[in-house]
């Protein structure tokens, strides 16, 4: 069972710490279970199965387990046409035994058939069942198995099928109507059958997958028309350039201009060759430190394809513009959570007189950084634990604030900034949420938005996942995300490689491990609580919602008061 537990945990990308937190069990117990040095209770096994989102039988397989006078052994597990799972167990209850079971996942039903002896089963007080008799009850509330004389039972667990969005029967007329509805603001629609050609039409991304046609729209976040000198001005102009003006920049000697042109074409439905944006790096060893972002995301792949990320080049571009306006276009500054350094590479194209000090604790990321920006000063430490007497007029954190405690990041930055100094945070944020279910849906809508412009026709689960979240369905999102990720594993092209990274980040976020995004207003509340003042806020790329404080890539300039 320990080997099986480790296999399932690693297959889902969970660290020991992450699984312990999800299941509500001690990390030391998990370590002992995987090593075969502890015997789990049935309650612990159920908690682990639910945290791993696998059937109980997949975890225990055919090995009998027992506690509280009950011995349980899996007999059979199968799957129906609609994806519903069925598991059959034999349960032997000793005389004068009583076993309480916690509520299982919503929608699960149990059916119990008596083999010998009499027992009391179901939600309290339970119902009597004897040989040949049958009792059915809802398994998603606490229930009991008890017997005075001892009994043997067959227990059937009927899992609910995974929800799938259902498209209407399609026709050319319905396809035209769906295109119009989505172009006017409906988030997404699906039709059975293949209608219209995949691509970008009337502001709508049309995708084929399986025997369905999906229609999705991205929210529009109009960017201000800013002006600048030299490379900065040329880059700002590309944000509003038509397709014919973008195409010549695909082979520009400037990496920043190439990236902006590639993104501009992508968002207008034209997928250019990504090769000019792929950064060649050596192989880096995976992190072995528990809980780190790099333990779930491949640094090699990230370093190679991150510039394909929609909205990525806008981050250093707007950062450079506002830093120049604030008179901070040169000098020594602290760069927090630098990672492989893509944003720093682009920022230094625009402001070459900046002198970054990169704070990056992960060895693999530091190796990638050394290849992209040799000679940059690096402090190999966790920023929130950083010990230094030096203070700075400027600190920059791009794409890393959600990989650490937001409160600790802000507190540490406030202490290390000089009075009047600026903290620039550019990162991804979700639309506002108040419940775990809302957060999960917003997380799905956020990450899948970055994938809409990519021509990924194969993984039907990807588009079904987004449509399900748009329809407000909280159930089954993680399983569909994992199914979509699995569907992309066979592809090795750069677009699929980026899509796998984005889906890995989504799954990590659903696990609330390594990816802990909040929403912009909450981030600002935390910044105010620490003592910062807001100098500027700008949504650079919209993923969900029409308001400027909804989901997407955001820039914050926070000032420590003088």
Describe the structure.
It is a single chain. With 562 residues, the chain is of the alpha+beta class. Helix content is 35%, strand content 25%. It contains 19 helices and 22 strands. The protein has a seven-stranded mixed beta sheet with strand order 18-17-16-19-20-22-21, with helices on both faces. Helix 14 links the parallel strand 19 (392-398) and strand 20. The chain is globular, with a radius of gyration of 27 Å. The model has no long low-confidence stretch (mean pLDDT 88).
Please provide the count of β strands.
22
Report the β-strand fraction as a percent range. Answer: 15-25%
The residue-averaged pLDDT reads 88
Tally of contiguous helical segments: 19
What is the structural class? alpha+beta
Shape: globular
Question: What's the helical proportion of residues?
Answer: 25-40%
Largest sheet: 7 strands, mixed
Q: Main sheet: which strands, in order across?
A: 18-17-16-19-20-22-21
Oligomerization category of the chains in this entry: single chain
Low-confidence stretches: none
What Rg, in angstroms, do the CA atoms define? Answer: 27 Å
* Separation of the first and last Cα atoms: 60 Å
């Amino acid at each position: 069972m320990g080997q099986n537990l480790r296999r399932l945990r690693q297959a889902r990308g969970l660290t020991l710490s992450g699984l312990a937190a999800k299941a509500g069990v001690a990390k030391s117990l998990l370590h002992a279970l995987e090593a075969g040095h502890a015997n789990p209770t049935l309650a612990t096994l159920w908690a682990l199965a639910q945290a791993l989102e696998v059937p109980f039988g997949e975890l225990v397989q055919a090995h009998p387990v027992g506690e509280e006078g009950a011995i349980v052994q899996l007999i059979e597990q199968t799957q129906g046409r609609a994806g519903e799972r069925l598991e059959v167990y034999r349960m032997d209850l000793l005389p004068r035994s009583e076993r309480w079971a916690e509520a299982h996942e919503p929608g699960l039903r149990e059916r119990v058939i008596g083999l010998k002896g009499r027992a009391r089963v179901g939600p309290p007080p339970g119902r009597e069942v004897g040989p040949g008799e049958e009792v059915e009850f809802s398994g998603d509330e606490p229930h009991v198995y008890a017997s005075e004389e001892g009994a043997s039972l067959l227990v059937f667990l009927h899992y609910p099928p995974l929800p799938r969005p259902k498209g209407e029967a399609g026709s050319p007329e319905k396809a035209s109507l769906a295109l119009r509805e989505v172009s006017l603001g409906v988030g997404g629609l699906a039709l059975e059958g293949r209608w219209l050609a995949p691509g970008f039409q009337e502001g709508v991304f049309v995708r084929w997958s399986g025997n369905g046609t999906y229609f999705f729209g991205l929210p529009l976040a109009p960017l201000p028309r800013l002006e600048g000198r030299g490379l900065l001005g040329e880059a700002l102009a590309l944000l509003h350039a038509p397709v014919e003006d973008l195409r010549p920049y695909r082979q520009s000697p400037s990496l920043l201009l190439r990236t902006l042109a590639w993104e501009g074409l992508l968002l207008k439905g034209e997928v250019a060759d990504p090769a000019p944006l792929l950064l060649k790096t050596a192989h880096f060893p995976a992190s072995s430190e528990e809980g780190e972002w790099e333990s779930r995301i491949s640094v090699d792949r990230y370093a190679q394809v991150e510039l394909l990320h929609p909205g990525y080049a806008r981050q250093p571009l707007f950062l450079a513009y506002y830093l120049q306006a604030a008179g901070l276009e040169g000098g020594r500054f602290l760069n927090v959570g630098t990672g492989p350094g893509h944003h720093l590479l682009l920022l230094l194209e625009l402001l070459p007189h900046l002198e970054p000090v990169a704070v990056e604790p992960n060895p693999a990321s530091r190796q990638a950084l050394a290849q992209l920006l040799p000679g940059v000063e690096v402090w190999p430490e966790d920023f929130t634990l950083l010990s230094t007497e030096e203070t700075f007029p400027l600190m920059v954190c791009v794409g890393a604030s959600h990989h650490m405690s937001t409160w600790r990041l802000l507190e540490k930055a406030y202490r290390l900034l000089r009075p009047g100094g600026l903290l620039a945070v550019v990162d991804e944020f979700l639309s506002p949420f108040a419940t775990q279910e809302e957060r999960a849906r917003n997380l799905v809508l956020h990450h899948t938005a970055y994938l809409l412009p990519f021509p990924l026709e194969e993984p039907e689960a990807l588009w079904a996942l987004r449509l399900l979240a748009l329809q407000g369905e909280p159930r089954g999102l993680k399983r569909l995300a994992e199914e979509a990720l699995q569907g992309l594993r066979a592809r090795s092209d750069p677009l699929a490689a980026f899509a796998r990274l984005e889906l890995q980040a989504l799954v990590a976020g659903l696990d609330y491990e390594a990816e802990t995004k909040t929403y912009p207003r909450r981030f600002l509340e935390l910044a105010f609580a620490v003592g910062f003042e807001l100098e500027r806020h700008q949504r650079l790329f919209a993923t969900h919602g029409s308001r400027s404080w909804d989901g997407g890539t955001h820039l914050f300039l926070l000032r420590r008061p003088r």
